[in-house]
Amino acid sequence: MKTKSNLERVLEAGQFAVTGELGPPQSADSEVIRRKAKILKGYIDAVNVTDGQTAVVRMASWAACLIGKEEGLEHIVQMTCRDRNRIALQMDVLGIAALGINNILCLTGDHQKFGNHPTAKGVYDIDSIQLVRMVKDMRDERKFQCGEEMAVEPHLFIGAAENPFADPFEFRVARLAKKVAAGADFIQTQIVYNVDKFAEWMKGIRDRRLHERVKILAGVAPVKSVGAAKYMKTRVPGMDVPDDIIARLQGVPKEQVSKEGVKICVDIINQVREIEGVAGIHLMAIEWEEVVPEIVEAAGLLPRPRFVT
Amino acid sequence: MLISEQKPLEEILNYLGRDKSIFLIGCKGCAEGWGSGGEKQVAAMANTLQEKGKTVTGSVVVDMLCDSVLTKLKLRAYKKEIAASDSIMVLTDGAGVQTVAELVDKVVHPGCNTLSSGGAHAEWKEAERCLECGDCVLEFTGGLCPIARCSKHLLNGPCGGSQGGKCEVNPDITCVWQQIVDRLAKLGQLDKLERIVTPKNWSVSLISGPPVKRLS
To answer: Is the bond preceding B199 in cis, omega lying within 30 degrees of 0?
Structure first.
């Protein structure tokens, strides 16, 4: 084992992993995090804590991780290159490892234009692939990006994201290969609604045998309403929501729509689970955390294994 | 005036790799003024490359290489030489390299780093083409600049927000990484994108460097 990560142990044991997502509040309110953590505990193997998602100012990911840790959850700190240069990133990597956080997800980050401070200066000193490599070199070579050595290395299980639905589609497998070559241990994908396209991408992954070198967690998320599905389809860049998903939601009475959204999510979990090379799911029920236990149970993924480290 | 200087010879030879026959292009505008890619420097580079065992199939120094129309006309006369070359080496700033890359279906190597626009801009009016980063990456990106044209200055491929050839930040922006992938696919050079590009040296860039530099 490279780290003390529970997620790493679940994946190495060949168990189908479940990760969740927790968005920190747009305030200094620690209770929000505790409430969400209590809902998720026991139903997931680790929870991602977002780092200024959609470029909106929220509590720092590492700080929210620390609060959630007190509730007994394992965390994946998300770290984006949008707001920090390589100096700040490495300082935070040292800090989170020292605080006992075992997992990191390396991201480039949503562009500042989408957030509540669109006039901010974007940093982008390095990109997500370079961040993966930098963290790996810190962990495995005990070296900073500049080449200098450190005394105690950060033991982090390293993750990266990939969007199989973005263009150019033919480059998406190659891009994942770069992340694997850079040192990613696990991958979490964009939310899968178009299972056929995801399966096609996974075939490309298997053709290059990448699934043997990295653990791939398929992103899934329940849709609450027809409007939300349409919004994702037309307004969210890089999302692929097929018409039959929207038709399924439209086909039930209004009060049943959110229930149908949960059913669709469970169906998608069952479908991606059948695809060779999928090692788990990343369940993103942002601001709808209370539905997570129901989905995990309905998908037959309980009880979650727990490895004591 | 765009201020450029030649890249170290070792880097240039590394770019050329196994390419045997090279066509050289310089510019009588800024690059001649700054001694990085005028008549004299192109002739000197031709000699150097030949000493290093390369064949220089021909060379041309265009009045204003960043003027797409003029360059297109000039290059027409060298169609045969260019066709017979493995690749093209351009000795001028980033705007000039990108003009050639847009006109010719051949690998175009940048021979210079662009240090500053010197307060002016190239003849390529419709879009920002070069951000004077001081460490030209056009070698790895098919002659299209992700520093100037990617919203996140990405060096290792498109982000997850590239869709239908457009940038997620604004549908009016073409995703330069889509263009880079298309061009490298056309040139049979997609393998270039498999290599991990290491963190960039921003210290030579005007973006994070001192406001006035290298002009003395």
So the answer is: no
